[in-house]
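Note to self: the last two entries modelled the partners one at a time, which told us nothing about the interface. This time every component goes in together.
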Amino acid sequence: MRDVVIVGSGPAGYTAAIYSARADLSPLVIAGSVDAGGELMKTTEVENFPGFPGGILGPELITNLQEQAEKFGAEIVYDDVTNLELSGDIKKVTLASGEVVEARAVILSTGSAYRMLGVAGEDRLMGHGLSACATCDGFFFRNKNVAVVGGGDSAMEEATFLTRFADTVTVIHRRDTLRASKIMQERAFANPKISFIWNAEVTELVGDDAVSGAVLRDTVTGETRTIDLDGLFVAIGNDPRTELVKDQIELTPTGFIAVDGRTSRTTLPGVFAAGDVLDPTYRQAITAAGSGCVAALDAEHYLANIEAVAPVAVAS
Amino acid sequence: MTVKHTTDATFRADVLESDKPVLLDFWASWCQPCLRMGPILESIDETHGDKIQVVKINVDENPATAEHYRITGIPAFKVFNGGDVVKEFVGTRPEAVFVSELEPYFATGTVEAS
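The predicted structure of the combined assembly is written out below.
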């Protein structure tokens, strides 16, 4: 029996692990077999995480958080959770290996998953000119013409990164202003390789066995046109990963895990949430980390109360 | 069995002329999802290496092969049988899922150790 099991290994999960390990709760982190580290693993330089004035690489930040958690006694398993039973005093966490871990408290920090465009040909062309990871695939577009779909920080980061390789990078955005932070916008505007197509959305991908273009629809006039492209990178946002819990705890109308006020408490006692899975608004590494801290403190408080009420009820 | 590392120069012998089906992994050190697939490939090799030869190729150091197979996204995996590509996968996948996807391409019968 574990005191705390943490599902997910981004900044929220590892910060929750650091805090609950220091509280002597020996947390187990289920890090994921292929998604370990979360979204930061796809980023390059993180310039806005406080405490790193020279910036830090996303994967390096994750490694540091992990080391810090392990230093205080957190245990990490690189496996995927296949089932969660969250009701009752004892929660059951089933892993892909078949192992079932029992815990008195669970912290859900499963983050979010890349949002698809939802157009025909997307599955077929993924990896064949269509990508959701510029840091992985930019290399293959040396001297090519590529586009990035999206208007947020991720889209600007990808566009700027891709200019290292590509001849031209076209940002396709469905509005006429960007959502990205000022500094990221200015960097993209100042880059001579980056141009913008405003008020446009991708309605179709062109290409049989590789992307050769995209059909764009003007969101104002409704007119469509086709542009030639060698590659298309999608950065239109992420959706919270709630598949395993959506039938057990309450979600918000937009699909995020619902929590009680400023706390991390979900609608089930002993189940807490942290990071992007509950955050439709801020979605930063630092807010995720802060939210992981909140969840660990809430879990600690919850466990202390159980013991106070029923000191001999649970033997470990 | 061990995971084999091939190059542009040895690709023909290691992959196309292999007497066993080959699972070829296109990867690079700067591709985090590729790195996370590393231990999964080792494990597949350990458990199923008698039925499929796991081979890795670093796209940074071996651009000709990556270009020949028109790789534009990694991790990318291709299954070769008798020199032909018989199946392709793009992106990370958990081990159990990957094994079930690969099973139809495993060598049947006994392959003599060489």
